[in-house]
Prior knowledge:
With 358 residues, the protein is of the alpha/beta class. It has 9 helices and 17 strands. Strand 11 (217-218) and strand 12 (224-225) form a beta hairpin. It is globular.
Amino acid sequence: MNLRFTGKKISALVTVLPSRETRFEDEMGNFGFSRAKSMKLKLVMGFDRHRLAGEGTCASDLCLHGLKRLFEAGELRPEEIDALLFVSQSPDHLIPATSNLIQGRAGLGRNTFCLDINQGCAGFVIGLVQAFLMLESGLWRKVVLMNGDTLSHRVGKRDRNIFPMVGDAGSVAVVENDPSGPPIHAVVYMDGSRSGVLQIPAGGARMPSTAATAVEEDVGDGNLRSKDHFFMDGPAVFNFVQTEVPPMIGELLAAAGATKEEVEYFLFHQPNRFMLEKLADALEVPRDRMPNNIVENFGNASSASIPTAIAFNLGAALRERKVRVCLGGFGVGLTWAALLMDLGPMRICELTNYGCDD
């Protein structure tokens, strides 16, 4: 699906990270590898440290903290929010929608439109597309897009394929009209026939969580996980990304009449360093224009990984000038999507911490 929008912008962005940090070397003993093999894994995949939410902390807590930061900074007033979108795979409850809970906790008006979107790695791009479509209707003027996940609560601590890379985070983006803004181009694809390669098998109506689904088992590759834990078929995901993402980016650039050289940064979802380096090579883009430093510093927080990459790598620049970027997400669904747009200038584009007393 090819989409084109005009007159839209992200006017502010805050990414919220749990203050609790753990390091890969402190966790190596859980993974059943020798120290030499573990250090090689760290080097190749870019594992170093990650931010993990404490017990009882939900994605909504991180996102609400970011929203309050925008209120305190004078970038947004509660009465200005026409719609609240919450993109997550970590809802507070099955019922009700977490966006409604955030609306109530933030004291927003009863006419605020609330919507949960169940998306993962491409969730920031999907959320922006939804926000742009709402603004196109003329019924909404400011949409608050929240992306957040605390998937570390649903990952096996002895699963070396997943636990070292996972991180928790939330982000809040203010999306609004900008009559002078340049066109924004988007491409979105989905393929549910391959949905099983990224999945939490138990916990929904198809397979309710029970004592049996909570039992950790050796899944055949030396890792231990239960059916309540997040599962990823690593080789299948790698092949999916390398096969599907380069032609999608080519399609996006062709639709926009743009070249790779015109894009200052390719800010993509960051599963690990190795995958991003191979993707940059496949796209024939210099690796320094496709940052891959989020997993090693904070961990992969699913749909919050792109806003984390924006704030961490471009926060200072975006407070001063406009930057042309390609945003790309790929994963759960399977879903892969990309946007070509200008970011900035923004008065606030930052990372902030959420501690146990916040």
